[in-house]
């Protein structure tokens, strides 16, 4: 199987989108965020590729301005998703000014002549063999920038135009950077993982974060990728569904109008849906009942707490109302002293049956051992939690003075 980091990442974010994009080959116009990000990347490539006569800051900004897309380009995604509104001229202006601000900040902190840039937009391939199946998979990708550092090590840099910066622990597990490291090692086999520095540069904040992967990170990422590829192949082979995974990313997904998780939202734009009116009524009725139930549950909890307090105050375990009665009792949960239980059950060959001390299995096992052993095991338990529960019954109970002679006779005979 031939795939890429972006495809693997798409699958992990949403299998349904992966199917639309990689299997069904349904192409969608780029979102405005993607168009913006691509242009910023292209401008930075221009900035570092004009060696040794590197461009000035004005020339870099001029490149960005010259290649800024026409309004029609940004509106392409609107036609594909009727739920999205058009991008106003003011919004386009804000995006453009944000791009210029990012580039200026980056240029001031990263003058191009201060770096030894080995490659830009570097394509790579990594061959990974699955030991279980013997199949070899090819992973392809593009690295934004590779620098050679003064200590003869190398730094992989990937640019990010988004605002979210990950934690250090998340960065250390970053799939993209780990895959890039594999790609560079494949290109230059003499390099060891510790010879490669992995960094994400967040242009919005002007900050570069560097990963510090664990020594076994390379092997872990190989296993993770192979597991993911095997999962994809299994779904294709056995015709299993690629389930959608709704998230905030759906707001930028061009496949939303055809996605099972969203296409019902667009139903008014589709004609001829059978039973639509009836289904809509039932959906709304169900949601209305759920909303009422949630409100009722909140009120029930509030009333239960107040009734419990009243019962404690009055020394009661049961209270009666017009529609039935409520009963309150204390329940306990137990933990067992493992070594004691093991010593008691091992002679009967029963310890293996209850290694995790599952209460149901232990109860069954105790029915199969002598009475004295059962009692000894019960003595080996201690209360781990004690709590009060309240149960309710809608069976009406008449007050003593209201009961008929027949009621009293029935009660006495019980």
UniProtKB/TrEMBL annotation:
Gene3D superfamilies: 3.90.320.10. The keyword Metal-binding does not apply. Residues 286-313 form a coiled coil. Pfam families: PDDEXK_1 (PF12705). Keywords: Coiled coil. InterPro entries: PDDEXK-like_dom_sf, PDDEXK_AddAB-type, Restrct_endonuc-II-like. Residues 3-260 form the PD-(D/E)XK endonuclease-like domain. This is PD-(D/E)XK endonuclease-like domain-containing protein. It comes from Candidatus Sungbacteria bacterium RIFCSPHIGHO2_02_FULL_52_23.
């Amino acid at each position: 199987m031939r795939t890429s980091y972006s495809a693997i990442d798409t699958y992990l974010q949403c299998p349904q989108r992966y199917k639309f994009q990689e299997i069904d080959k349904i192409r969608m116009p780029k979102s405005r965020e993607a168009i913006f990000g691509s242009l910023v990347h292209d401008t930075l490539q221009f900035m570092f590729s004009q060696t040794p006569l590197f461009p000035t800051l004005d020339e870099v900004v001029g490149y960005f301005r010259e290649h800024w897309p026409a309004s029609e380009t940004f509106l392409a995604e609107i036609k594909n998703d009727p739920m999205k509104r058009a991008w106003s001229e003011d919004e386009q202006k804000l995006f453009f000014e944000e791009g210029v601000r990012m580039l200026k900040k980056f240029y001031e902190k990263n003058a191009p002549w201060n770096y030894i840039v080995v490659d830009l937009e570097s394509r790579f391939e990594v061959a990974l063999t699955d030991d279980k199946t013997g199949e070899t998979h090819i992973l392809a990708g593009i690295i934004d920038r590779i620098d050679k550092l003064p200590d003869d090590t190398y730094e992989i840099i990937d640019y990010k135009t988004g605002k979210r910066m990950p934690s250090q622990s998340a960065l250390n597990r970053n799939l993209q950077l780990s895959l890039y490291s594999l790609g560079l090692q494949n290109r230059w086999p003499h390099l060891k993982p510790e010879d490669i520095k992995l960094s994400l540069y967040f242009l919005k904040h002007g900050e570069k974060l560097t990963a510090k992967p664990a020594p076994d990170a390379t092997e872990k990422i190989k296993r993770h990728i192979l597991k993911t590829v095997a999962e994809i192949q299994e779904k294709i082979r056995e015709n299993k569904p690629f389930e959608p995974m709704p998230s905030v990313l759906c707001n930028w997904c061009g496949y939303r109008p055809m996605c099972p998780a969203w296409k019902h939202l667009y139903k008014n734009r589709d004609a001829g849906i059978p039973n639509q009116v009836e289904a809509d009524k039932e959906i709304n009725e169900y949601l209305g009942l759920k909303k009422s139930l949630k409100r009722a549950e909140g009120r029930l909890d509030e009333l239960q707490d107040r009734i419990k307090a009243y019962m404690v105050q009055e020394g009661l375990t049961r209270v009666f109302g017009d529609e039935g009665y409520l009963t309150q009792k204390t329940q306990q949960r137990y933990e067992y002293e493992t070594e004691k239980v093991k010593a008691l059950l091992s002679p009967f060959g029963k310890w293996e049956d209850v290694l995790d001390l599952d209460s149901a299995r232990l109860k069954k096992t105790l029915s199969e051992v002598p009475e004295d052993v059962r009692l000894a095991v019960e003595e080996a338990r201690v209360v781990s939690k004690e709590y009060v529960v309240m149960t309710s019954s809608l069976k009406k109970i008449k007050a003593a003075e209201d009961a008929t002679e027949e009621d009293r006779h029935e009660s006495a005979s019980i």
